[in-house]
């Protein structure tokens, strides 16, 4: 998939545990794991907004486009 979600990098930089973070943004730890591992097919704008709010970052800080050849 050409869109990479660098959520694990941002969580590590902010020193936030996955469990604590999932509770703060209102998603299950299992769904957070799906986002972190890149297995998600979609992300809700409201979830992206909550992630950015809690991590004090921009969407571009966690989303990256990789051109497939």
TrEMBL record:
- Please name the source species: Lacrimispora algidixylanolytica
Domain of life according to the entry:
Bacteria
Entry-linked SUPFAM superfamilies: lambda repressor-like DNA-binding domains
Official protein name in the record: Transcriptional regulator
Q: Where is the HTH cro/C1-type domain?
A: 13-62
Quote one Gene Ontology molecular function term: DNA binding
Q: Name one Pfam family in it.
A: HTH_26
């Amino acid at each position: 998939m050409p869109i990479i979600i660098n959520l694990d990098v941002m969580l590590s930089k902010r020193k936030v545990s996955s469990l604590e973070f999932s509770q703060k943004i209102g998603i299950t730890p299992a769904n957070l794991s799906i986002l972190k591992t890149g297995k998600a097919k979609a992300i809700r704008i409201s979830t992206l907004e909550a992630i950015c709010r809690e991590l004090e970052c921009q969407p571009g800080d966690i989303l990256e486009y990789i051109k497939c050849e």
